[in-house]
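FAQ: What does the model actually see?

It sees only this:
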Amino acid sequence: MSDVDERGAEWFRGVYARHYPDVVRYGVRRTDALAAAEELAQEVFLVAWRRRWEVPERTLPWLYGVARRLLANRRRGMGPPTVPLPDTAGVDPHEPVAALLDVRAALGRLSDDDQEILRLVAWEQLTTGEAAVVLGCGATAAKVRLHRARRRLAALLDDRPAPVSLRVTGGTR
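And it is asked to produce this:
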């Protein structure tokens, strides 16, 4: 019997045990809230159970694809997003935190598709082939999307204004 023929509770327990933490991390990186990420993971695994006969051998990219579509459906239902701007007053521009804020801000200015391919490859550490499965496109298309997204992100980071130094040097008050 093939693996597909034996997709019962034991198979599901194994998939859940192996990939639940990965799906939660995927959700946290996109929602910035653990509770929302855990709820997303529950929905993803409900879909996986219901469609267990369709789940490919390489399970994780398929699960990420389900999560991606569920998040897209939520975003469509919520209307336009509002993102609070981080308070960066007094932050030393040479600190790694400031650089991270710059990258996050630039990433937020990219299209959803650009953000997703970059996150899949950088954060989730998927290959372009695995990212293609998540995105529902071919491997070549994923490589092209990744290249273009990286180029657009680099352009945004190059265009950022020079940070204002808050350091006072010399002199008296």
